[in-house]
Amino acid sequence: MSENIESTLKDECGLVKDRPIIVGVSGGPDSLCLMETLRQAGYPIIVAHFDHQLRQESGQDARMVEKIAARLMLACVVDGADVRAYADQEKLSIEEAARNLRYRFMFKLARERNAQAVAVGHTADDQVETILMHFLRGSALTGLKGMSFCSLIKTFDAKIPVVRPLLKMWREETVVYCAVNGLRPHYDSSNDSLNFQRNRVRHLLIPNLESYNPKFREAVLHMSESLKGDYAFVMETLDQAWQESVIAKDEEVVTFDSDLLSGYSIGLQRNLVKHAMQFLRPEVDISFSVLERATNMINGSGLSSRVDLKGGMRMFRELGNVYICTLDAELPFNLWPQMIGNDPVSISIPGQVSLAGGWKLSSEIWRIPALAREQARQNEDQFQVWLDAENLSGQFELRTRRQGDRFAPLGMDGHSQKLSDFLVNEKMPLRAREYWPLLCVGEEILWVPGYRSAHPYRLKTTSRSIVYFSVTRPLDKFR
């Protein structure tokens, strides 16, 4: 065991001997075994005990841990809280509340003492129980592979890892180790209570499954090891797709290229969505149904281009991008042209007008009608337009929409419709409509940049007075 544990501590857990380790010690055989293993291996440790105050004798457990630490000349810090009251207040299960408070205490202590890691005494039995609990919840590969020797729990700390050196030791082995090394673990009566799901899995489900396969626990561990390899492969593929498809990200928004995202397999789409959600909210528990809603939207099989996810997050598509964001996220507006305010802006020809987010509108006169008609016929850029200005009198201007605006789009033979209906039909993003620039003369809308020009001012074979407008985007902010 000595050789195996040394290798685990160094290679699997990444521990060094010149920085302290916070060791969670409850007083049971697993945590005492962990404490003594690290001490004998020469690692500097600080014993951390958290009193959950769920049992009358819990105070005695704390004093016992303090005595053991003092006898071994180890630093020891004891803290506690009313877990039941916290669970009621936060609407959590007792198990989840206890874990949250315990880990919060240990990671706070780790930061205060400049510790390299927080060590906990999870064993192979805990691994089997955890995997079965994940299975019962319908977990994907992430849950079924089980716990790792070393991992980050970003909810508690983004830099200090939690390490689990005993993941290959069975609980019976820790009991024997304590006896050999003169340690007397205490007995926690709550471990027998069937009120907790883990205990029901431990005392009822696993013995029942062992009647089908006496080596059931070993089989689950072997499965876990196999799935860890598969998970590593998936993460490599996921990382490559993430680098390819994510346009931008911050603490409120992850922006995907819609075409790239929809081109991936369903499984990769699910993992990208999950990764984005956990990037924004590391603590969120993501179910299959949430990911199914997301992939339905990505692939157009849903009823909407906007879906609510979970944990205060939503997902929607706009102009070639898919956003996963928090409800209060400040989403970028520089994806499209926007007026800086509601005041109209006069346009000189030739000339240039600055818009919000680095966009610009340029204008000029074209004096060769045949060339203008050829360019207009070949043009596929909806942010360029050539207009017949023969019958236009008045000042060209850019403005935002107004109540009662009507528009006669190209292709409708001069028939007009409400501008609001046109914008809905063209699927202009709702949040972009208020400040979208409209090219006008007087009350008449000549062009909705990015969409269509007005039918009455299209180029004709008889057009002689031609004006050209283009709206350009800030190139450094786009692919």
Q: What does the largest sheet look like?
A: 6 strands, mixed
> What percent of residues adopt helix (DSSP H or I)?
25-40%
Total helical segments = 15
The CATH superfamily of the largest domain turns out to be HUPs
Second CATH tier, the architecture of the largest domain? 3-Layer(aba) Sandwich
- What oligomeric assembly is this protein in? single chain
Point out poorly predicted stretches: none
Description:
By secondary structure, the chain is an alpha+beta fold. The protein has three domains: 2-212, 3-Layer(aba) Sandwich (Rossmann fold); 222-326, Up-down Bundle (Chorismate Mutase Domain, subunit A); 345-477, Phenylalanyl-trna Synthetase, Chain B, domain 3 (Phenylalanyl-tRNA Synthetase, Chain B, domain 3, 3-Layer(bba) Sandwich). It is 38% helix and 19% strand. The chain is built from 15 helices and 22 strands. It has helices at residues 2-12, 29-40, 58-71, 83-90, 94-112, 124-136, 141-144, 171-180, 197-210, 216-245, 258-263, 266-280, 288-298, 369-378, 419-425; strands spanning 21-24, 45-51, 75-80, 117-119, 150-151, 162-163, 246-249, 253-257, 306-308, 313-318, 321-326, 345-346, 351-354, 360-366, 384-388, 396-399, 406-407, 417-418, 438-441, 444-448, 452-453, 466-472. Strands 3-2-1-4-6-5 form a six-stranded mixed beta sheet, sandwiched between helices. It has a five-stranded antiparallel beta sheet with strand order 7-8-11-10-9. Strands 12-16-19-20-21 form a five-stranded antiparallel beta sheet, with no helix packed on it. Helix 4 (83-90) packs across helix 5 (94-112) and helix 12 (266-280) crosses helix 13 (288-298). The longest helix is centred in the middle third of the chain and has 30 residues, at 216-245. It starts with a helix and ends in a 7-residue tail after the last strand. The relative contact order is 0.08.
